[in-house]
Amino acid sequence: MEEVYEPLRGWIEIEVRDKDGKLIQSGRQRMQSFLNNLLRIIEGEAKAVGGAALNYYGLVQSTTVILQDGTSGTAYIEWYSGSSYYGGGVPMALKASDDDDTYGIIVGSDTTPNTLNTYKIYSKISHGTSSGRLDYGPVSVDDLGLDTSVSPPVYRYRIVRAFSNLSGAVITIREVGLVARNYWKDETAVRNDVKFLIARDVLSTSYNVPNGGSATVAITIEVVLG
Amino acid sequence: MNLRCELIVEKDGKEVYRGESKSFVQNFAKAMMVIHSSPGNTSLDTGGAITSVLVTCPDNVNRSIYGEWYTIAYGYGGGVNIAMSASNDDDSFGIWVGTGTASVSPTDYNLASKISHGTGVGQLDYEPHTVTSSYSDTYSYVEISRVFVNKSGSDIIVREVGLVARNYWKDKDGIKNDVKFLIARDVLPTPVTVRHLGSLTVRYRISLSTT
Prior knowledge:
Chain A is mainly beta. Chain A has 1 helix and 12 strands. Chain B has 1 helix and 11 strands, in the order ββαβββββββββ. Chain B has a 5-stranded antiparallel β-sheet with strand order 2-1-11-8-7, with no helix packed on it. Strand 4 of chain A pairs antiparallel with strand 5 of chain B.
């Protein structure tokens, strides 16, 4: 059967190490999980015009996203601050800091299948060192560049996050998601800060992270170029 | 979940081509990456470009686009990352059409031979864009389209189409970035002749499905 061409696709790789750093489990699977929230951001960008006059301020273009509590939220696409300095933002950031489990790569323990309207990690494993928690590291994003050695050529970038288990017991990862942050601010206040799920995958294998060990999740996004 | 992109072409309102668009170029990948590589937790008193990346513009010059940006010493600051809906008569971005047949390359930065906006010889009248969408549990799409009208007095043959995005950031002091860059290009398998006073409609449909 001919493979369906997907201009945007991804791969999930997980490595689990014990307390001594020894690799004890690893796996790789196709990411098949982009959700309506991603498409809603693309819709907002497609509708945007740019070119606002220098003295213009306010919201020009936005899009509706489904937040992780199931309610609707507004993501800004084109926005300008008022008279305050330092105005601007970003529509879909993923590079969360150390210990921040509100966006970036998020892991969980549930296996409920997706629909396109899935809006949350069903059983999120929160950041922390107490029972049932994992210590979230910072998210890194690496530009892997254009690869013309494969057919069709692809452009790749890799999103990586490590999770350390300091909880005292084994923790099992069964789902992985990408939560994006729509953040716009000026010097006086944060004007928009909403976080929403753009991708979620139920893993084909459960990954058991031992106490004292760690799991590293790498999501490689591939833009397939013809 | 499969993400797909279709290219649909209509001549005088009648569909003459529908097929997979396989022609995102590397500029699109860079634009996605620079947004995703942004932190989005910048402190209130920070300004400047937090993330940026070089793309290749239609004039074959590399320029930076911003993923996350803040004005510094002036108000009215902000912008947009990959705007696509150019206004009526604006052929500087959005959906373009051309006459070239050169094969698509991942590093394409321009159409091979763009047809400019206008009513003169060899030109088409570029209309505004329309964006439609539909969302469900199993199939969702976003479609951006543009109509081109031939007022040139002669037939015009369209052989290629493309999508050009705009990265625009400004404050009260001035435009801080206004970079337009090709993100997709397709060569039509069969050229489409647009008669005088006829029209061509080009649609890019990005969809998600569970099958």
